[in-house]
Design goal:
heterodimer, A: Cytochrome-c3 Hydrogenase, chain B, three-stranded antiparallel sheet, globular, B: 0% strand
């Protein structure tokens, strides 16, 4: 696609093979509207150009980059340690996962391994973060579909997780919890009690969300058979995470390529069958419960010992390249790092799950209604900080 | 002149029927003033109740427990810059909110707050109400079109389709209630709003329970259709904020936006009043059949005063629980004053002459208030319907049931 030089939205759509509207005696002109970048339900600054026939969507085009900060380019001018806080700012909803992916990738490059205790702390915090991310997703997704109340319930419960983060590392959102080679901070006194308290606190709350939504007639109407995507399309587009699993593919990097300490825990991978919005909702709800299960095992079995491996003060990884990916709450989060042997990476490329998943939007909404676009953007669980980087 | 004014007092009918312009004017002022105050109260109540549904506090800053928030909002909206989009159709843009407002307020002309407490009693009251309230859709379409913007246009399209479809089911439900009024010796029914309540009085049954469950089903259909008619959750598609930002009034701000809001809330109260009139016995007190006798009459007539006293007590509990810091002194005093006013009103309502006159209005308003609470409850609980589903519910579910109920009611009416 050549870059259009005009501001006319139609230019962006020129390469799309848009279906013609059904020709009837009531034939009307197609309507091209901008959804975003300032729109309450595009989760940030996503701009979607919609081609509509009445309420029916004929085609979409996502215009991204409104939140582009050049994170990957910044990495080329920072040392490996200095770049670590930047990754938190990509998917700010799941900052811990981002940090985990980056630290593990650099560790792989340096050929060091974090000590077991550090790995367990990483697992606990990452899974807590997965819960927080899913709770934020649920609240905003439900709000997009019109149910206001779950948002406040999920934020109330997410607060408990953020409190644990705050006590652990001083930050709530962009935590910078992990360091290359392990963790900087030992767990604070009462950390395990706090986590255990949360483990008892969370399950009834999840029940509460489900009570409001799972069997709600309107919720079923709005999510069943909406934004359906087949497993084949998912794989072809590289869609990962709960979206892929809801289409029936049992693919979770925590099981497929275990990292951190995940091989030591017992948990299920929930999958759906239809690949519609409702299945994705159910998959994520079940993932919350499975996360709690992992955290419980980790807290019970957390080993004693050092939390930092031996890493040089000045990191100079050997010349080479590495790709390491983890299962972030939104899907496969990968880091491709090329080292030229200096203190700064030659190139870092991030494979963000939100960016890749967003591609599926067009397939999922074509032929459906405007209201479904909102539902599908919500169910894809995108964070624009990560899409644009 | 004085005779003209006092002559009405002995006429024992509504000012409209008595043809007394003075009292009609007074009633209009009282009703419209009362509705405007009710809208402001509803604004505060909705924000408070919704907040408590959602584990928040709601407005707490302006006045004690945010009691002055609606006034602050009104001042803010009145003093805002008046923006008309550049390419908007200025005249239509101007007139659209007024149409909605007029449509919503005109319904009150026939709303009977009591046997004589109505502006007038049209013999086609129900028809008038249906006709006038459906004029609101005109304002919505005009607002959407005149804004010359995509989102308002889609909002207006949705809204017109929605209001037109639900009016059909609503009309059918209303007709089945009107049919029930003809079940008397002469077999003549009435379309007059006061007549409908009087028919319920004569038959000694609220139409809600008449031919159970037929009356109940018709009522439920009306209750659903009236939510759709007023564009409230879960049928708030025309102004679905997550899809169309604000629907047909996206381009409106300041005073004109507040007129839309005033119209919307006034319409909510209006349709609730109609539901109360048609099915819930209008101004009649609860349990008129089982709890009869002078003592029960007395007990029920004490309710209005008791409610106000209870509100005053709640206010005084709030005063006691206020933080004792000097910063809260004005708020504490304000709340105490508010409680005192409520208590005073309560005491006045206990006085026998006031008590007898105010009863009808009190029970009517209390029943309407239940509907207002339901509106808030719906909004806190349910997601929003999609456009095609909304149409499906309207045409494929509500309408057939409404027609079935209508036919069954007619058959039963003939047989009994």
């Amino acid at each position: 696609m050549t870059e259009p030089t005009t501001t006319d939205p139609k230019a962006y759509l020129s390469h799309l093979e848009l279906g013609e509207p059904d020709k009837t005696f009531l034939d009307t002109n197609e309507l091209i509207i901008n959804m975003g970048p300032q729109h309450p339900a595009t989760h940030g600054v996503l701009r979607v150009i919609l081609k509509l026939d009445g309420e029916k969507v004929l085609g979409t085009e996502c215009v991204i980059g409104y939140l582009h900060r050049g994170v990957e380019k910044i990495a080329e001018h920072r040392t490996y340690t200095m770049f670590n806080p930047y990754v938190d700012r990509m998917d700010y909803v799941a900052a811990v996962s981002n940090g985990l992916g980056y630290c593990e990738a650099v560790e792989k490059l340096l050929n060091v391994e974090a000590p077991p205790r550090a790995k367990y702390i990483r697992v606990i915090l990452t899974e807590l973060n997965r819960l927080a991310s899913h709770q934020l997703w649920l609240g905003t997704h439900a709000l997009d579909i019109g149910a206001m109340t779950p948002l406040f319930y999920t934020f109330r419960d997410r607060e408990e997780i953020l409190k644990i983060f705050e006590k652990y590392c001083g930050a709530r959102l962009t935590t910078h919890a992990f360091r290359i080679g392990g963790c900087l901070y030992e767990t604070y006194e009462g950390f395990e009690d706090d986590v255990k308290k949360f483990l008892d606190f969370a399950p009834p709350k999840i029940e509460e969300y489900e009570e409001l939504l799972t069997t709600n007639r309107i919720w079923l109407d709005r999510t069943k058979n909406v934004g359906t995507i087949s497993a084949k399309d998912c794989i072809a587009l590289g869609v990962t995470g709960p979206v892929l699993r809801a289409s029936g593919v049992k693919w979770d990097l925590r099981k497929a390529q275990p990292y951190a300490a995940y091989s030591e825990f017992d948990f299920e991978i929930p999958t759906g069958t239809n690949g519609d919005t409702y299945d994705r909702y159910l998959v994520r709800m079940e993932e919350m419960r499975q996360s709690l299960r992992i955290i419980r095992q980790a807290v019970d079995r957390i080993p004693e010992g050092p939390i930092m491996a031996k890493v040089p003060k000045v990191m100079k990884p050997p010349v080479g390249e590495i790709y390491h990916s983890i299962e972030a709450p939104k899907g496969e989060l990968g880091y491709f790092i090329v080292s030229d042997g200096s203190t700064q990476p030659y190139r870092i490329r991030v494979r963000p799950p939100s960016f890749v998943n967003l591609q599926a939007l067009d397939i999922m909404v074509r032929g459906q209604l405007v209201a479904d676009v909102i539902a599908v953007i919500g169910t894809l669980d995108i964070v624009l900080g990560e899409v644009d980087r | 002149m004085l005779d003209y004014i006092t002559s009405y007092l002995s006429s024992n009918t509504t000012p409209g029927q008595a043809g007394n312009v003075f009292w009609a004017f007074v009633y209009i002022l009282v009703v419209f003033g009362g509705v405007s105050v009710a809208v402001m109260a509803m604004n505060w109540l909705e924000r408070k109740a919704l907040a408590h549904f959602q584990i928040r506090l709601g407005p707490m800053r302006v006045g004690p427990h945010g009691l002055l928030q609606p006034i602050a909002d009104a001042i803010k909206l009145f003093t805002k810059e008046d923006i008309v989009p550049d390419k908007a159709d200025k005249f239509v843009f101007w007139i659209a909110p007024l149409i909605i407002l007029c449509a919503a307020f005109s319904v009150y002309i026939v709303v009977p707050f009591g046997p004589t407490h109505a502006i007038t009693d049209l013999n086609i009251g129900v028809l008038f109400m249906l006709g006038v309230s459906s004029l609101a859709v005109l304002g919505v379409v005009m607002a959407g079109w005149a804004s010359n913007s995509h989102y308002p246009l889609i909002g207006a399209l949705r809204s017109s389709a929605q209001m037109v479809s639900y009016e059909v089911a609503m009309g059918m439900a209303v007709v089945s209630a009107v049919l029930m009024t003809s079940l008397n010796k002469t077999g003549t029914g009435t379309l007059s709003m006061i007549g409908i309540v009087q028919a319920q009085q004569q038959q000694q049954i609220w139409f809600l329970f008449k031919f159970f469950p037929l009356g109940f089903i018709a009522f439920v259909i009306f209750a659903i259709a009236m939510v759709a008619e007023t564009n409230r959750a879960p049928f708030d598609l025309p102004e679905a904020e997550s899809e169309l930002t604000a629907g047909f009034h996206t381009e409106y701000s300041g005073l004109r936006w507040s007129l839309f809001m005033l119209g919307e809330y006034a319409a909510m109260i209006a349709v609730s009043s109609i539901a109360v009139t048609l099915w819930l016995g209008g101004w009649m007190r609860p349990f008129p059949n089982t709890l009869t006798g002078a003592i029960w009459d007395l007990v029920f007539s004490l309710f209005p005063g008791a409610i106000f006293i209870a509100l005053a007590v709640i206010a005084f509990v709030g005063v006691v629980r206020m933080p004792k810091h000097p910063y809260f002194r004005i708020q504490t005093l304000g709340l105490a004053g508010f409680g005192a006013v409520l208590g005073l009103i309560g005491l006045i309502l206990f006085a026998p002459p006031v008590r007898d006159r105010i009863q009808d209005i009190f029970w009517f308003v209390a029943k309407v208030a239940v509907f207002m609470y339901l509106y808030i409850w719906y909004r806190a609980t349910w997601p929003r319907y999609r456009f095609d589903q909304l149409m499906k519910v309207g045409w494929k579910v509500l309408l057939p049931i409404a027609i079935g109920v209508l036919i069954l009611t007619a058959i039963l009416g003939v047989l009994l």
